[in-house]
């Protein structure tokens, strides 16, 4: 008998392989995190079946689908069985319909136990939307602020290594911001995958009661941060990170010039986008210095004349923040923040995903209306 499982129960499984049998294009648009794409129909075949369904009828579309899928069964079985005999196999398609039902039935007949997700990917999207369609997430947010290069992302990674829950929006988006944001990074995910990864992280952090995040604008590259997350950021605890110019320059050079030929062409292209702010002559001079790899001259100029005035963060301790930390020594800064967080009244108090309106209390002046640009 075919086994059908709800999306909620499927996500609770720990020893599982989730298989997406939709086409490559559907998978690229959005999928369940960790799923493996093994299409029953590729993009062209799916289009053929869809056209037949619309122009001729349901039965003819089914026959065409069987004709296309039949020769693939052996390869399909081998691919799915190779994912691990000791794992639970769970399949899904768009709505939990014919594609996942047919594939699951064939696998079961061939002795490979598999289940299909009721409602398919559409059910998963409903779950994501329910989580994010709230005024705010329930976690108490701890938001890192600071000038470019102080080490916000590095601190997040170190705190995560210490067991604290971190929502690294730039890491998920694979984008550091607008002008220089894509240099040296792989392609960004789709908006649906961006949201799915956010919910996966937030769900896992509920038992800790808090979430660490870097202050962001509504957009990270082309991706939109969900309003519930933005609201949480504007009302969370605020930590100011600051560092010396020397350390900031060193970190930026390490982040942005480690690619082939020091990413010179990408750096020059991104710098050219700043002509309106810096002027044509200055951009030409900076690009010439980039070509000569004189990064220790270029980066301080960009920081002093563009980025620091843009963000206006203090470069010293400030009473406007709950905590101010010198980040010249990243390990010491991480230890200070870690100790401070673990003394918070919200730390370690589990929350649910009800998204209470007042779950995050505090200053709401920053983040929401900032259009952040990162170097």
From TrEMBL:
It comes from the Bacteria. InterPro entries: AAA_SelU (IPR058840), P-loop_NTPase (IPR027417), Rhodanese-like_dom (IPR001763), Rhodanese-like_dom_sf (IPR036873), SelU (IPR017582). Residues 351-370 are annotated as: Disordered. GO terms for molecular function: tRNA 2-selenouridine synthase activity. Gene3D superfamilies: P-loop containing nucleotide triphosphate hydrolases (3.40.50.300), Rhodanese-like domain (3.40.250.10). PROSITE patterns: RHODANESE_3. Residues 358-370 have a biased composition (Basic and acidic residues). The keyword Amino-acid biosynthesis does not apply. Keywords: Selenium. SMART domains: RHOD. One of its GO terms (biological process) is tRNA wobble uridine modification. Pfam families: AAA_SelU (PF26341), Rhodanese (PF00581). Residues 12-129 form the Rhodanese domain. PANTHER family: TRNA 2-SELENOURIDINE SYNTHASE (PTHR30401). This is tRNA 2-selenouridine synthase. It comes from Desulforamulus aeronauticus DSM 10349.
């Amino acid at each position: 008998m075919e086994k059908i499982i709800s999306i909620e129960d499927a996500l609770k499984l720990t020893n599982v392989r989730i298989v997406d049998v939709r086409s490559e294009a559907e998978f690229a648009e959005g999928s369940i995190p960790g799923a493996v794409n093994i299409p029953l129909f590729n993009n062209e075949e799916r289009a053929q079946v869809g056209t037949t369904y619309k122009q001729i009828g349901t039965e003819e579309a089914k026959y065409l689908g069987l004709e296309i899928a039949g020769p693939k069964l052996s390869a399909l079985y081998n691919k799915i069985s190779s994912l691990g005999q000791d794992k639970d196999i769970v399949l899904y398609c768009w709505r939990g319909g014919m594609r996942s039902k047919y594939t699951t039935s064939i696998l079961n007949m061939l002795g490979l136990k598999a289940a299909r997700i009721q409602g398919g990917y559409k059910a998963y999207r409903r779950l994501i939307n329910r989580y994010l369609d709230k005024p705010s997430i329930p976690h108490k947010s701890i938001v890192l602020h600071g000038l470019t290069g102080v080490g916000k992302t590095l601190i997040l990674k170190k705190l995560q290594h210490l067991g604290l829950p971190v929502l690294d929006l730039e890491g998920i988006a694979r984008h550091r911001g607008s002008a220089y944001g894509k240099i040296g990074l792989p392609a960004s995910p789709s908006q649906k995958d961006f949201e799915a990864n956010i919910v996966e992280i937030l769900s896992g952090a509920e038992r800790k009661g808090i979430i660490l995040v870097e202050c962001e604008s509504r957009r990270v590259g082309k991706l939109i941060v969900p309003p519930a997350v933005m609201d949480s950021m504007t009302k969370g605890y605020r930590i100011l990170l600051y560092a010396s110019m020397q350390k900031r320059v060193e970190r930026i050079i390490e982040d942005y010039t480690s690619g082939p030929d020091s990413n010179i062409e990408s750096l020059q292209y991104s710098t050219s986008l700043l002509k309106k702010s810096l002027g044509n002559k200055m951009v030409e001079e900076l690009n010439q210095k980039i070509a000569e790899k004189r990064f220790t001259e270029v980066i301080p100029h960009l920081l002093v004349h563009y980025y620091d005035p843009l963000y206006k963060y203090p470069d010293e301790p400030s009473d406007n923040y709950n905590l101010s930390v010198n980040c010249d020594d990243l390990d010491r800064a991480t230890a200070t923040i870690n100790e401070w967080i673990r003394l918070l009244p919200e730390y370690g108090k589990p929350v649910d995903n009800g998204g209470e309106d007042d779950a995050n209390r505090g200053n709401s002046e920053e983040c929401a209306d900032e259009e952040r640009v990162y170097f």
